[in-house]
Amino acid sequence: MKVCFDTFGCRLNRAEALAQEAGFLARGWTATETHADADLVVVRGCSVTSRAQRDCEKLVEHLREKYPNKRVVVTGCMREKRNEALLRDLSLDEIPTRTARAYLKVQDGCSGSCTFCIVPQFRGRSTSVAFEKALDTAKRFIDAGYREIVLTGCNLAMYHSDGRRIAELADAVASLDAACRVRVGSVEPTAPASDLVDAMAANSNICRYLHLPIQSGSNMVLSAMRRPYSVKTVETLVGKALEKMPLLAVGCDLMAGFPGESDLDMLATTTLFRRIPISRAHVFPYSERPGTAAAMLPGALPREIRHERAHELAELADAERSRYAKKMVGREVEIVVEDEESVAGWTGEYLWCRAQNEQTARFRAKRRERVKMRVVKAEGHMLIGG
């Protein structure tokens, strides 16, 4: 029997898909990349934006029309009840082995009430993997040869197990093996993120990349979104982080065109780029999600304005990312190798780096190995090391 996975969306979806794939392989299934060969297709959907959901729905419709006799399971943040029992019966204790980096799911769901978000309707309230179980899985990833573990979840700021939160977990995983680095996924700019900054500063093998789902630089918009922080909170957190780690890379999520967002609100967001150094941004236009409070708010902006603002923010983010990359020239960085031929991978700061063409033979690095390079130049966002 053969299974094919199509995964949309975030690292959490990817982590779950990899775990389920490993479960199928343990039961004697074979993984395939093509729908035609598969006996079962698992589509792990995303509903964060209308476009993501539409793309997923189109794929599912195509699969069921073209292969009416195949089993197609839709799960993730756009699930269907039919056929899901097949996935629930899987053992998820097997360790995935085909990726360069390990994805460790430690939290699921969200107990927040953000007005724009549909995800809690699919994933429910926040739940956390037990601290010791998470550590045990991390050990197994290390034993399997992984040299980077990515801690992922739906809302990592809500991780909680026996009084310990995401900072304590990141610290504990980092302490397992100095040869394995730890990358922490997106964390809301609340108190757990401040504690995480301390853990990052105390552990050299926790990647110097802090991703914050800021969403907006306007307090009015954040309030309308029901986000649990203010712009001042973000600035204070980033200031603390940069004081402890001056070369820290700061990433963020930004939503453009939320209902009622004025020109001044948009200006507040662009101004935020000038007050705090953002090296990577995921920008997307607001889209109505039926069943959310935001879908009923007055002041909906025309779609063209939403997309124009998203484009403006994306261009600004692109320029800031290139500027940050140039700061790394002359400095030593470390990658976990994903592409052996070009000796390339992600730095701890989440920049793609490859060896100079004439230097690849010198490194002779295998996939998953940690390799240090000195950056000789930056080509846009990409670093060239030697």
Could you list some keywords that capture this structure?
alpha/beta, 12 helices, pyruvate-formate lyase- activating enzyme, 23% strand, globular, 3 domains, 386 residues, Rossmann fold, five-stranded mixed beta barrel
Biggest sheet features: 5 strands, mixed, barrel
For the CA atoms, what is the radius of gyration? 21 Å
- Architecture per CATH nomenclature, i.e. the level-2 architecture of the largest domain: Alpha-Beta Horseshoe
**Tally of domains:** 3
How many runs of DSSP E, i.e. beta strands? 17
CATH topological fold name of the largest domain: pyruvate-formate lyase- activating enzyme
Q: Which of globular, elongated, flat, extended, rod-shaped describes the shape?
A: globular
Give a brief description.
About 35% of the residues lie in helices and about 25% in strands. It contains 12 helices and 17 strands.
Set out the fold topology.
Blueprint lengths: L1 E6 L3 H16 L3 E2 L8 E6 L4 H17 L4 E6 L7 H5 L13 E4 L1 E2 L10 H5 L3 E2 L2 H13 L4 E5 L13 H11 L4 E4 L6 H12 L6 E7 L3 H7 L5 H14 L4 E8 L6 H13 L4 E6 L17 H25 L4 E8 L4 E4 L4 E4 L4 H4 L6 E10 L2 E4 L1
Can you describe what's shown?
With 386 residues, the chain is of the alpha/beta class. The protein folds into three domains: 2-88, 3-Layer(aba) Sandwich (Rossmann fold); 102-327, tm_1862 like domain (pyruvate-formate lyase- activating enzyme, Alpha-Beta Horseshoe); 332-385, no CATH class. The protein has twelve helices and 17 strands. It has a five-stranded mixed barrel. The chain has a four-stranded parallel beta sheet with strand order 2-1-3-4, sandwiched between helices. Strands 5-8-9 form a three-stranded parallel beta sheet. Strand 3 (40-45), helix 2 and strand 4 form a beta-alpha-beta unit. Helix 6 packs parallel to helix 7 (191-202). The model has no long low-confidence stretch (mean pLDDT 93).
